[in-house]
């Protein structure tokens, strides 16, 4: 009888053990499913990041809306996504090997438990690692990711993160162009065109005032003058804004907004910017300089600038102007005005022959034409280290007439106008954004292909895009950026 009871006790013990083993298996299965769901979520996040990286690598994606003559690039390739995932893994491995003691303790404690953390949990718990990954994404994606969690919102909206992102991403792509025509009515002073296929661009009208006018743009920041009231007195003030983040800062009252104004900003060198006004106050010429670091205006007296049109370009730490005989630059750091005689070769034509003077991919670009009706020209390029002009290439746009025969019906002024020089999909290939016959097109110089960016601009001097030697319509570049203002 006692042996039977012992046998039954052992039977009950075996049944309990079997039940416990079954429960453990079910728990492990639930844990595996949970880990699988987390890994799937991580894959989706990486896929989103990879897609955004593809768009950053291939900026001139075809716009499905509107007429397109030739697409400048195909859709994002699988190689780009694989490359991004490899880089993401390298970042994870390298950063994990250099974790702080607190992070090492977190990982060790997690590893000692029944289940090790997934890579997404490691990234989420390591601010340095998460920041390193997010810094590689374009601004538009980061703004969308701010809604993921409060931690992501705090990280991405931090001014130090914005400055670091702008400093790390030196290859700044021109996302679009703004056009301002002083004949346009108040309600449509600013028109725009996207170079990336976006339906619209952000505008400075988030600044609540009656009038907003763009006067300068530089590396992601925009300088505007606005109507405002100070001490119950109506006046005009300068405002520096970031259209990507919809942030702005009103500068201290200056008192005069008639002089040409220039915004000088290079986030790869400094998070601070300067605003430079060139003013003639008889009997001297004066530069008024505002620094975002000091927060006040300074006044210095300089020699007269021998230029007919005060349309300067900020490049390589200085504001540059052209005259018939000299190349003038104002070093923003040292606040020194330097004149350099134009070279004998290549020949620099008189300044009224200049069709474009601007910056592109770290180079200063000059395009000149001898005749208004000319369809051919050469592109001059200045290198950073030499300050010497070289002939980059020669361009013949006459084949455009076969695609757009209405070019021959344009006014006697010019057949086309160069709005911007920009890099395409291949960073070694230069392209031009042109305005002609009511259209804005992108022309790839190497592939000799073109893409219509916009064709709904009305024709005419007062409502359309009207350009001539006096540049009634002015063009300003829009670059996505997280730079704080």
UniProtKB/TrEMBL annotation:
The lineage of its organism: Eukaryota, Viridiplantae, Streptophyta, Embryophyta, Tracheophyta. Pfam families: F-box (PF00646), FBA_1 (PF07734). It comes from Camellia sinensis. Residues 127-165 form the F-box domain. This is F-box domain-containing protein. Coiled coil: none annotated. Residues 1-50, 93-118 are annotated as: Disordered. It comes from the Eukaryota. Residues 1-45 have a biased composition (Basic and acidic residues). Residues 93-102 have a biased composition (Polar residues).
């Amino acid at each position: 009888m006692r042996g039977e009871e012992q046998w039954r006790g052992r039977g009950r013990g075996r049944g309990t053990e079997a039940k416990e083993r079954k429960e453990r298996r079910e728990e492990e299965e639930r844990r595996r499913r949970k880990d699988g769901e987390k890994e799937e979520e991580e894959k989706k996040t990486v896929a989103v990041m990879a897609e955004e990286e593809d768009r950053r690598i291939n900026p001139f994606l075809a716009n499905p809306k509107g007429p397109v003559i030739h697409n400048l690039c195909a859709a994002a390739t699988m190689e780009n996504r694989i490359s991004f995932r490899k880089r993401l893994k390298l970042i994870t491995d390298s950063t994990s090997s250099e974790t702080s003691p607190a992070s090492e303790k977190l990982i060790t404690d997690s590893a000692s438990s029944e289940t090790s953390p997934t890579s997404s949990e490691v990234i989420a718990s390591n601010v340095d690692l998460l920041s390193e990954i997010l810094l590689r994404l374009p601004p538009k994606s980061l703004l969308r990711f701010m809604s993921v969690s409060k931690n992501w919102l705090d990280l991405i909206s931090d001014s130090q993160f914005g400055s670091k992102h702008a400093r790390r991403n030196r290859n700044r792509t021109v996302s679009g162009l703004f056009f301002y025509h002083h004949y346009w009515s108040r309600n449509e002073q600013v028109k725009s065109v996207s170079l990336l296929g976006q339906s619209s661009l952000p505008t400075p009208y988030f600044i609540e005032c009656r009038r907003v006018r763009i006067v300068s743009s530089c590396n992601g920041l925009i300088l505007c003058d606005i109507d405002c009231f100070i001490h119950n007195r109506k006046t005009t003030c300068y405002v520096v804004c970031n259209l990507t983040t919809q942030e702005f800062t009103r500068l201290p009252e200056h008192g005069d907004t008639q002089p040409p104004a220039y915004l000088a900003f290079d986030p790869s060198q400094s998070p601070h910017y300067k605003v430079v006004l060139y003013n003639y106050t008889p009997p001297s010429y004066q530069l008024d300089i505002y620094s975002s670091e000091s927060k006040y205006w300074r006044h210095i007296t300089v020699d007269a600038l021998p230029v007919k049109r005060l349309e300067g370009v900020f490049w390589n730490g200085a504001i540059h102007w052209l005259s018939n005989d000299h190349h003038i630059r104002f070093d923003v750091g040292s606040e020194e005005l330097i004149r350099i005689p134009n070279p004998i070769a290549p020949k620099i034509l008189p300044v009224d022959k200049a069709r474009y003077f601007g910056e592109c991919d770290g180079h200063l670009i000059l395009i000149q034409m001898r005749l208004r009706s000319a369809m051919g020209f050469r592109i001059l390029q200045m290198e950073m280290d030499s300050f010497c002009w070289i002939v980059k290439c020669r361009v013949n746009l006459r084949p455009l007439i076969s695609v757009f025969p209405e070019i021959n019906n344009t006014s006697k002024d010019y057949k086309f106008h160069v709005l911007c020089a920009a890099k395409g999909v291949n960073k070694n290939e230069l392209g031009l954004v042109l305005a002609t016959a009511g259209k804005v097109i992108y022309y790839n110089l190497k592939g000799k292909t073109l893409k219509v960016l916009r064709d709904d601009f009305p024709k005419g001097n007062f409502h359309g895009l009207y350009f001539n030697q006096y540049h009634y319509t002015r063009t300003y570049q829009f670059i996505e950026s997280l730079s704080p203002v």
